Amino acid sequence: MNSKLLQMFFEQYHNDLYIYLRALCHDPVVAEDLLQETFLKAILSLPDDHVNVRAWLYMVARNLYYNYAARRKHQTPLEEWHEVPSELKDEVLEQMLQDEQRMRLHRALEQLSETRREVLVLQYFGGFSQKEIASMMQLSPENVRVLGHRAKKDLKRLMEEKGNDI
Fold it and tell me: Which of 161, 95, 151, 91 is CA-nearest to residue 125?
């Protein structure tokens, strides 16, 4: 689409489209976002010979709003959190706690030496045996065992220093 033509359409229809979208969603920020997206779609896909540009823009804006509303329908606003069943709240809180614990573990792992960290990651997250790790890292299996033992000991100390359980 011709940029001058698009600018003309924008100047001609943006206020009315904004009012329409604002009436649908009751949110000025969302209405502005949808308005911008409407004109972006016009740039990308409106044929130059389209007969009724105004109707097409309203149709696009309407579809974008309903797509937005459908996505939003599956989200729980923070204000409605108290209406969520307590079992679901408990599950969400438990997941958040587990995620926080994983982040703490990850930060502690980053403080280990590269070799010790690599041994632990390969052993516990990669599921490799000490023999396989020894082969990959070109170390003896005994060296891998000692490195793993020391890495776990260091990791435990680091986690305890931060007040975390392992």
Answer: 151
